[in-house]
Design brief:
Chain lengths: 347, 294
């Protein structure tokens, strides 16, 4: 609790950003986001776009796993559905970009709700298995429904264009991806101030109790699946515009583990956690690449071990965070903040 | 077109070899689940490490196959014990989902380490079973498949006997049915946990050697673990008989779909079966139905 804040109404208590300091920092952060593309190079803009796409998808998975307590290992496959929707619409019909993205979201939400159907019978580990199964089945469909997905050769996606502006390079795409990411994260944050969001949290804490309290489990669990998949679909659509080619191999099973790892590392069940996790997990491979670059004069075959080292670091991060810091980066962030709030008193 | 019964029989016999391996891996899985309530997604990777250990002992150190198999199985047991002690023990009492995700992390670490130590390229295990084909009636069966089947069946039988008659096996079953009661009977429960992981590690390593002998080894062979996962879900997570029957079912299904529909339908059939079982009978064919109370 911050010293010297007094709330006089429920509205103030429930506000998303409650103190003036917080709002000031947030304003600075948005300003930094606005200035960023004018100062950074192509490489950093590329990273920023990728981070923003991952933030959207991780936030979606966080709604499902962190807030509703339903573990899913199918997030990458859902992104694939979104990406294919965009690719097919763009290549066949040439509909406007924003329409395509929305369609990607809705199609994926429908698929997600379908995959979520077993959740009325099973939960926990069994549900995780069901999503693994679903992701392999979706992968099969991507690879073998050749009349729509063109099989393993994939679909080339024309560049996105909004209001006549063609967006092909990261500099331009930044202005499409970032606003969508900000909007969707804000949407998720607001979701948990509504009845639906609170119902999700009740289901996570104890689903039988939630049902006794009058929350229809089936409807809310499916809604959670659909919402989470909607996020994944939009992220997948942006992914398609970003990389411009969609193949079945673009969304491997490991990618789903990546998102789950991001949720865990960031902190399950906090919006901030989804953001921090996505940023952290996207930057780790880049830092490793940098490290390998530094090592290459000493170790000649450093480049060859990059990919296995990345796999190890991913695994170690998941294990390490679950064992030592189960609430993730968000908790570390909170502790640091509290230290400064209470300084010079001890926490 | 006339249905070729001989061909069908050959496919089925080959499938039974694969089924035995699936059942063995499933057994390793059930062992861990029964004793420690951990769903171990790293089982496929433990299997892979066992196969690679065997590879280095024979091809690298030039040991005879029997010595190499023994060492690889011991290595698998050590790996199981290490994983249990290092990352699973500290997670005791945490939510099942967290432990599940820890095993995913462990699997990822094992894949990475294998790629660094042995390289990412698939290799074939040195041949130690001979090549002369075996005929059952008119049907041709590859020698590897026959040996794989017999060894897996023998190991499974040994496990079943051990559970029934050996002190440690009984302690394991006691722990599985009621941990607190097992404690008060003087059973060293943490030791039983280690024991279960060691045996599972050994079984996985053995299965890995057989799988590698049939299909070659690669860092991606952990995918076999996913099929084993389907096996235990279909059979019921805590049922040994379920693992055996599930293994046969999945093995046959995979082989028939792979032969008559095409290789890419294998995964689809396996996971389709998984979905179906989850929808109709979520606790598997022989699993205990968990009753939840508030």
């Amino acid at each position: 609790m911050r010293i010297g804040t007094l709330k006089e109404s429920y509205a103030a208590d429930e506000a998303l950003f409650d103190t003036r300091t917080q709002k000031a920092w947030l304003g600075l952060f948005f300003l930094a986001l606005l200035v960023f593309p004018f100062t950074a190079g192509e490489y950093w803009l590329y990273i920023a776009c990728l981070v923003a796409i991952h933030v959207i998808s991780t936030t979606g998975l966080n709604i499902l796993t962190g807030f509703t307590g339903l573990v899913s290992l199918g997030q990458a496959a859902f992104m694939g559905v979104g990406a294919y929707t965009v690719a097919v619409l763009e290549a066949r019909l040439g509909t406007p970009t924003l329409v395509n993205l929305l369609a990607a979201g809705f199609v994926t939400a429908a698929v997600g709700a379908l995959v979520g159907l077993p959740s009325l019978r099973v939960k926990g580990l069994y549900l995780a298995m069901a999503t693994i199964a679903a992701s392999f089945i979706l992968h099969f469909i991507f690879a073998n429904w050749t009349s729509v997905t063109q099989g393993v050769s994939g679909i080339n996606v024309p560049p996105a264009s909004v209001l006549g502006f063609e967006m092909a390079r990261p500099v331009q795409l930044y202005w499409l991806i970032l606003p969508i990411a900000v909007l969707m994260v804000l949407g998720a944050a607001n979701l948990f101030r509504t009845r639906i969001g609170r119902a999700f949290i009740a289901i996570r804490d104890r689903d039988i109790s939630a049902e006794v309290l009058g929350i229809p489990l089936l409807r809310y669990k499916l809604m959670s699946f659909a919402l989470s998949s909607f996020y994944a679909g939009v992220a997948g659509g942006l992914w398609a515009y970003f990389f411009r080619v969609v193949t079945p191999e673009s969304f491997p099973f490991v990618y789903s583990i990546f998102f789950l790892a991001a949720v865990i590392v960031g902190g399950m069940g906090t919006i901030l956690g989804g953001i921090l996790g996505a940023v952290f997990m996207t930057l780790v491979p880049e830092v490793l690449k940098l490290g390998v670059g530094l090592l290459s004069p000493v170790l000649p075959d450093a480049v060859a071990i990059l990919s296995p080292v990345r796999t190890i670091v991913f695994g170690a991060l998941i294990v390490g965070f679950l064992v030592f810091e189960p609430h993730g980066l968000a908790e570390i962030w909170r502790r640091t903040r509290r230290f400064f709030h209470l300084w010079p008193f001890k926490t | 077109m006339d249905f070729d019964w001989l061909f069908f029989a050959e496919v089925t016999l080959a499938a039974l070899g694969n089924s035995a391996l699936l059942a063995l891996t499933g057994l390793a899985f059930v062992l861990i689940y029964k004793a420690t309530r951990v769903v171990n997604l790293a089982i496929g990777e433990m299997l892979m490490v066992g196969a690679y250990l065997f590879f280095s002992f024979t091809a690298g150190l030039g040991l005879p196959p029997w010595g190499a198999i023994l060492l690889a199985v011991v290595g698998g047991a050590l790996l199981g014990a290490t994983i249990e002690r290092a990352v699973i023990r500290p997670m005791l009492g945490e939510a099942a989902i967290s432990v599940f995700m820890v095993t995913i992390g462990v699997g990822s670490v094992l894949i990475g380490l294998t790629e660094i130590i042995w390289g990412a390229e698939p290799t074939a295990l040195p041949d130690f079973m001979g090549k002369a084909p075996i005929f059952i009636g008119d049907a041709y069966v590859s020698r590897k498949v026959v040996i794989g089947f017999s060894v897996a069946a023998a190991v499974i039988a040994v496990f079943l006997l051990a559970f029934r008659f050996w002190r440690g096996g009984i302690a394991l079953r006691a722990t599985a049915s009621d941990q607190a009661a097992a404690y008060s009977c003087g059973i060293n429960v943490p030791a039983v946990f280690s024991l279960a992981w060691m045996f599972a590690g050994a079984a996985a390593a053995g299965a890995g050697i057989l799988v590698g002998a049939v299909g070659g080894i690669a860092p991606t062979m952990g995918v076999f673990g996913l099929s084993a996962l389907v096996v235990v879900i279909v059979g019921g997570l805590d049922s040994i008989a379920g693992a055996l029957i599930g293994g046969v079912l999945v093995g046959l299904l995979e082989a028939w779909c792979g032969t008559y529909l095409g290789g890419e339908y294998k995964m689809l059939a396996t996971f389709g079966l998984l979905m179906l079982v989850l929808l109709v009978r979520p606790y598997g064919l022989f699993g205990t139905v968990e009753i939840e109370r508030l």
